[in-house]
Design brief:
Layout (H helix, E strand, L loop, with lengths): L20 H13 L2 H20 L3 H42 L7 E5 L4 E4 L9 H5 L6 H15 L1 E8 L2 E10 L5 E10 L5 H4 L4 E5 L2 E4 L1 H6 L4 H13 L5 E5 L4 E9 L5 E5 L3 E2 L12 H5 L4 E5 L5 E4 L1 H7 L13 E2 L5 H9 L8 E5 L6 E9 L9 E7 L1 H46 L8 H24 L8 E3 L1 H16 L3 E6 L7 E3 L1 H17 L5 E12 L3 E3 L2 E3 L2 E9 L30 H11 L3 E7 L3 E9 L50 E5 L3 H13 L3 E5 L2 H8 L8 E5 L7 H11 L5 E5 L7 H4 L6 E4 L4 H24 L1
Parallel strand pairs: 19-21, 27-28, 27-29, 29-30, 30-31
Antiparallel strand pairs: 1-2, 1-5, 3-4, 4-5, 6-7, 6-10, 8-9, 9-10, 9-11, 12-13, 12-17, 14-15, 15-16, 16-17, 18-20, 21-24, 22-23, 24-26, 25-26
Helix pairs in contact: 1-3, 2-3, 12-13, 12-17, 13-16, 14-15, 15-16, 18-19
């Protein structure tokens, strides 16, 4: 609402910010004001009682009642008068506050304690209700208003922000002292990443949001008293469809040159240039002075009908790498559109590509530069077929897009790798398991023994590759602990020295200020080994591999390539070689799985991708920097732990089995290896236990069932959870232990086990799966006391796990029997 109170109507606001000395004296009556009607009603009732007592000749009681009635009546009258005074006071103070904010470009609204509007400044327009202003910014505007009022009454001031995509609104409230319950609401517009850039430059700008036009403070100051004329002239020009660079006619023959600029937040900014005089008749508009056009903070370029660059300002030449004297064809300046640039210009002249932004690469600048270009028709009547290009720097936008695409690609490959690893684990379990069964009946003199041994060894190599796939997809189980990098590298030096060979020297350098990190020690060793092996292979003539550590403190966020490192303390590990280096065109691909520059048969392409997956899963960062012919540096960043963390480490979570040590990069297996002991089984017990085996993969189920029967166990096989529950419906069936896959068609392993344990509580459960334990922890958490056996497992692994769980069950039953 627009307030038009005359100065004589204005309240006199004390110079101390609005505090009224009468407010403290009237405070008790203000509190009674809300109950004024109750006081009046009570006074009437007591007066009636006094009349009744008088008729009953109870004079003293009647006198007391009459006195009380008169007192309540006086209090009611006083409360009503104070209430009226407080309402008048609120109106006056609210009007004064609104007038003081009349030049504020943001809406300011004054309400009472219940959120009812009392006044508003001109920027608020006809929307003085806070709930109406918050509509569209939150789900329940009325509830948000109520919560803000409660908060401001408790704290006297509060602020809240609401966001919608890249735009936001900040609502600030504060109570007014001595104004008998007034709240000032200030609504300000926010843009993600900071304010609007043109506003910061102090240029007169009109922002178009939908059908509304809004002048910024610089525009209101430049055209004070002419705001309505400027907005009316703009509306007429914009309604006529004029965009780009155009002229505005003002009364008195004056004109304004205006430039329409699209902004990143989806709004349209119109930059107003200094006024100048139009020629006779008011038709057309001369070009702005050269100095003004040159310094416009928007890159502008004119393209003539032949496709040559006709004119440009300083910012456009900087973006595209041009000099003021050059006039090349526009197709020589940009590329990467996907079609010929002249065809794009012809479409724009025909009206088919106007106003549609396109991102292209500038060909002339030395550094890679991407620009976003919007074409408009030139309004100069002497430049038929000419176009105006509005250019903005899109290098950062393109970098973010490339970063997102790379992230999506790596995530998709990771999901594929995790799925492949699960399927391979099932196959490898069947292969290695049946191989173990065949080896049971053969000794080293059997003619098939060495062939079976080769099958077993290569199955183990395949299992190592599967672990690398799981490492890349970040789905392996980690055991984080506080690790001293200096101790870890010193312990690893002996193995690395043998790994690099005699031609290469290994050098270690430690930063004395280095603190510990939290990581999986064995997996971190695997990462360093992979990087050292990669460095060794890049140095066929020998040299030195340096491993350095450094303590680094980042004061603020640091951008490194396509990653952003938050501020904080970091521990760095660098692996530096003197090898042949990595070409610049492939360095962005080295962390992709199966990408390798080695010859066929010399590498799997999983070494660096495994290192990348492990480091990322541990919350770290890995970067590669290389100069072709001069060597490569791999840098690992890990968050540093406090200095006292190493003295009191948090123990890693216990697991049912000790994880296998990481394997170094496998060398080709020999054709005939030395003899190795045959797989052995625990002795068969006389009173065998009954085991329910549930597995949807038939080869895995066949191997596990045969292995358990060879040990004397009675095995019931089921291909899914539904069949297992059908077996258990027979109360006469005795089952001492469940062995089940976790992920199966229909009801999953934890699902059917939970249902079965309702009738058979205390039955031990062994879960097996090709997925890792941490990915299944949520599902397995429903079954307390269960244990996990990861695929691929050997005959010995399965036998020992079953024997251990049955022994624990027997021990518990023995303790219960003694009790």
């Amino acid at each position: 609402m627009r307030l038009t109170n005359s100065p004589s109507d204005s309240p006199q606001i004390p110079p101390d910010g609005g505090a009224d000395p009468r407010a403290s004296l009237l405070e008790p009556l203000i509190r009674l004001a809300a109950g004024g009607r109750v006081l009046a009603f009570a006074s009437i009732l007591i007066a009636t009682a006094a009349l009744v007592l008088t008729l009953a000749h109870l004079d003293r009681a009647a006198m007391v009642a009459a006195t009380a009635s008169a007192t309540l009546a006086l209090l009611a009258i006083a409360a009503m008068l104070v209430r009226a005074y407080a309402a008048r006071r609120r109106r006056f103070v609210g009007a004064a506050l609104a007038r003081s904010a009349a030049t504020d470009p943001d809406p300011v609204v004054v309400t009472d304690l219940k959120g009812r509007p009392c006044a508003a400044n001109p920027a608020a327009g006809g929307m003085a209700d806070p709930a109406e202003r918050l509509h569209g910014w939150c789900v329940d505007a009325a509830q948000v208003v109520d919560s803000l009022l409660v908060e401001v009454r408790r704290r006297e001031a509060t602020t809240r922000e609401f966001w919608r995509q890249d735009r936001g609104m900040r609502v600030s409230l504060h109570s007014v002292e001595g104004a008998f319950g007034l709240i000032v609401w200030h609504f300000s517009t926010l843009m993600r990443g900071g304010g609007r850039g043109l506003d910061v430059l102090g240029l007169p700008v009109v922002t178009r949001e939908g059908v509304q036009l809004r002048l910024n403070p610089a525009a209101r100051a430049a055209f004070m008293g002419e705001e309505a004329e400027v907005l009316e002239a703009l509306e007429q020009v914009l309604d006529a469809g004029n965009i780009g660079v155009f002229a505005l006619s003002l009364p008195g023959g004056r004109g304004i040159q205006a430039v329409s600029v699209p902004s990143r937040d989806g709004l349209a900014d119109i930059v107003l240039l200094p006024p100048h005089t139009l020629p006779e008749g008011g038709e057309g508009s001369p070009a702005p002075p050269a100095s003004v056009f040159e310094e416009i903070p928007v890159a502008l370029m004119q393209i003539d009908a032949e496709g040559r660059v006709g004119g440009s300002n300083r910012l456009a030449r900087q973006l595209l790498g041009l000099s003021a004297e050059e006039a090349p064809f526009f197709s020589e300046v940009v590329e990467g559109l996907g079609r010929p640039v002249p065809d794009w210009l012809d479409d724009a002249r025909a009206g088919r590509a106007l106003g549609r932004p396109e991102v292209l690469r500038a060909t002339l600048p030395q550094q890679e530069t991407f620009v976003q270009i919007i074409l408009r028709r030139a309004t100069d009547q002497h430049a038929e077929g000419a176009l105006v290009a509005v250019i903005s720097d899109a290098t950062e936008l393109k970098s973010l897009e490339a970063r997102f695409v790379q992230s999506q690609k790596m995530q998709a490959i990771g999901q594929l790798a995790g799925g492949i690893a699960h399927d391979f684990n099932n196959l490898l379990t069947a292969i290695s398991g049946h191989c173990d069964l065949l080896l049971l009946n053969r000794d080293r003199f059997d003619p098939d023994y060495n062939d079976l041994l080769q099958i077993h060894q290569n199955a183990n190599r395949a299992a190592a590759l599967v672990r690398q796939l799981l490492a890349f997809s970040r789905k392996q189980t980690l055991k984080p602990e506080v690790v001293s990098l200096e101790s870890l590298l010193e312990e690893l030096t002996h193995l690395l020295t043998r790994l690099v060979g005699e031609r290469i020297t290994l050098a270690l350098s430690h930063d004395p200020a280095l603190t510990a990190i939290r990581a999986d020690k064995r997996q971190l060793e695997q990462v360093i080994m992979n990087l050292v092996v990669n460095a060794r292979d890049a140095m066929p003539m020998g040299g030195t591999i340096r491993i350095e550590t450094e303590a680094l403190h980042l004061l603020d966020e640091h951008e490194h390539g396509r990653a952003r490192l938050p501020a904080g303390d970091y521990a760095l590990i660098r692996v530096i070689d003197q090898g042949i280096g990595i070409p610049a065109d492939i360095i962005d691909k080295i962390f992709e799985p199966f990408f390798t520059t080695k010859k066929i048969g010399e590498g799997t392409g999983l070494g660096l991708s495994t290192a990348y997956g492990i480091v990322k899963q541990m919350g770290g960062y890995i970067f590669a920097e290389s100069i072709e012919g001069a060597g490569t540096t791999f840098t690992l960043y890990f968050a540093a732990e406090p200095a006292e963390a190493l003295t009191d480490p948090v123990p890693a979570a216990e697991s049912p089995e000790e994880p296998a040590a990481p394997l170094p990069p496998a060398e080709p297996a020999p054709k005939r290896g030395p003899a190795r002991p045959r797989p052995s089984l625990p002795p068969v017990t006389v009173n065998s236990a009954a085991i329910l085996l549930v597995e949807d993969e038939a080869p895995v189920r066949a191997f596990a069932a045969r292995a358990l029967r060879l040990q004397g166990y009675q095995v019931f096989e089921a291909q899914d959870g539904e069949q297992a529950l059908d077996f258990l419906r027979d109360p006469a069936l005795r089952v001492d232990l469940f062995v089940t896959d976790v992920i199966m068609p229909g009801i999953d392993g934890p699902g059917w086990v939970a249902e079965a344990l309702e009738d058979r509580p205390g039955t031990p459960v062994v879960f097996v799966s090709g997925y890792t334990e941490d990915t299944l922890s949520a599902a397995m958490g429903r079954i307390p006391g269960s244990v996990f056996l990861g695929k691929p497992f050997s005959l010995k692994d399965l036998s020992e796990m079953i024997a251990r769980e049955l022994a624990k069950r027997d021990a518990l039953e023995g303790v219960a029997g003694e009790g």
